[in-house]
Design a protein that fits this description.
- The protein is an alpha/beta fold.
- The protein has two domains: 176 residues, Alpha-Beta Complex (2-enoyl-CoA Hydratase, Chain A, domain 1), CATH 3.90.226.30; 240 residues, LarA, N-terminal domain (Rossmann fold).
- It has 16 helices and 20 strands.
- The strands form six sheets. It has a six-stranded parallel sheet, with helices on both faces. It has a six-stranded mixed sheet with strand order 6-5-4-9-12-13, sandwiched between helices.
- Helix 13 packs across helix 14.
- It is globular.
- The chain starts with a strand and ends with a strand.
Length: 428
């Protein structure tokens, strides 16, 4: 028997699989890239040697209103590690600068004070020289218009970001299931953009593009919009990190929002790229907390399994989902009981300017469900999972038994992806 450890919420779950059934385990090569110094030093070194940019301390000179876009509670960005070095750089350039940390919630719910403390630490949250603001994408009064996206949608971003003398951002780079990679330009779009702008960028036409896939930037129409948004917002400097399986910093990239990000993406592509091992059953996760808080986010881990699951096969998604579905319209789309082919066609027939909230996530989930049965091992209520046209299991062992019954055989090969959001699964 092979024992595999799967992240589940803030805990770990150990699963045993018969040797004769285990087809392979897909993991990133993060363990091959060990950090040679403490996390804080990695960040400070990157800040001291920016890519295609002056040092942040030079950029901060004469800039009194500095805005830092920071990731929200759904991202494992180690702000406690990143922020001290960033603040030190800013203060070295302008000790009297007014600093606002704008939380990039994108289309997510607002981040709570408790979540801010968990991310930044109480010392930073309570500093008198820092103001925290939480982006709310539906508050039109908070937005300003900066032009038209290549997609044709209006670019509206948070006025706090738009009115900054110097706009910078933190983030982390990992594979992203339709933007190619996270980080960099994503801090602006969707990070601090209006709901209408996000929906134009996440339209069904773009989501359906063969280039809107994990690890793909070239030709990706969603990425193209995001680059334009960052340029128009005058995003001047980023500090992005790469994390290992324990959410520890192993690399950091600072400097020009596009050039530094692309260099980080090249490293992540090298680290995370794996060849698919096709199987009838694929087990995946969403990397544990905070990325597996809901079904909405867990669609990401499903797409990694999708890339390695045989047509008609079963995806077993191990994801805590302690917050439930994570998107009412996502839930409603499938709880209506409609045929998945009809649901998909409705998405494809929806014009760019008529995109509805969470349509993109529903479209990708629908794509997965059209070709695979999905069984969820989760803390979300069984009825909720069933309502969304998926099956519920109490444990991975039960899910495998259910998959065997569905497939009509008890010896199907199994591929395991311990962290579905950390890998770029390439079909041969």
């Amino acid at each position: 028997m092979a024992e595999v450890t799967l992240p589940f919420g803030k805990e770990k779950m150990k699963v045993t699989i018969p040797d004769n059934r285990l087809n392979g385990i897909l993991v990133s090569k993060a363990h091959e890239f060990q950090a040679d110094k403490p996390e804080e030093e990695i960040v400070k070194d990157a800040l001291a040697h920016p890519i295609h940019s002056k040092r942040l301390r030079e950029l901060a000179k004469g800039k009194d209103n500095i805005v830092l876009i920071a990731s929200d509670h759904t991202r494992p960005v180690p702000s406690k590690v990143i922020m001290p070095g960033v603040l030190e750089e800013i203060k070295a350039g302008n000790p009297n600068a007014k600093i606002t940390i704008l939380i990039a919630t994108g289309f997510h719910r607002p981040t709570t004070r408790e979540e801010l403390i968990y991310k930044f630490g109480e010392d930073i949250v309570d500093r008198e020289d820092i103001t925290f603001a939480v982006h709310k994408s539906h508050e039109n009064a908070d937005m300003v218009e900066l032009g038209t996206l290549p997609s044709g949608g209006k670019l509206k971003i948070n006025k706090i970001a738009a009115e900054a003398d110097l706009l910078i951002s933190e983030g982390f780079i990992e594979p992203h299931f339709f933007a190619g990679f996270s980080g960099g330009r994503k801090s602006v779009l969707p990070g601090v953009s209006s709901a209408a702008t996000v929906m134009a960028n996440h339209c069904s036409e773009f989501i359906a593009s063969e280039y809107a896939r994990t690890g793909v930037l070239e030709g990706n129409p969603i990425h193209r919009d995001m680059i334009y948004a960052a340029e128009q917002a005058k995003l001047a400097f980023i500090i992005n990190v790469v994390l290992d399986e324990n959410k520890k910093v192993i690399r950091a990239y600072a400097g020009d929002f596009n050039e530094a990000h692309r260099e980080g993406c090249r490293f992540v592509d090298q680290m995370s790229g794996v060849d698919a091992i096709p199987s009838d059953i694929v087990i995946s996760t969403n990397g544990g907390y905070p990325l597996d808080q809901n079904i909405y986010q867990s669609v990401k881990g499903m797409t990694a399994a999708e890339a390695s699951c045989n047509p008609g096969g079963v995806i077993i998604m191990v994801s805590s989902c302690i917050d439930g579905h994570g998107g009412q319209s996502l839930y409603d789309t499938f709880a209506s009981g409609g045929d998945k082919n009809v649901i998909m066609q409705r998405f494809l027939d929806t014009p760019r300017d008529k995109t509805i909230p969470d349509q993109w996530e529903a479209q990708i989930l629908c794509r997965v469900l059209m070709h695979h049965k999905v069984i969820m091992v989760t803390q979300a209520p069984k009825q909720l999972v069933n309502d969304m046209q998926m099956d519920y299991a109490e444990s991975v062992d039960e899910a495998i038994r259910m998959a065997d019954a569905y497939l009509g055989k008890a010896d199907s090969k199994i591929t395991v992806i311990p962290d579905g959001v950390s890998v770029i699964v390439r079909r041969k």
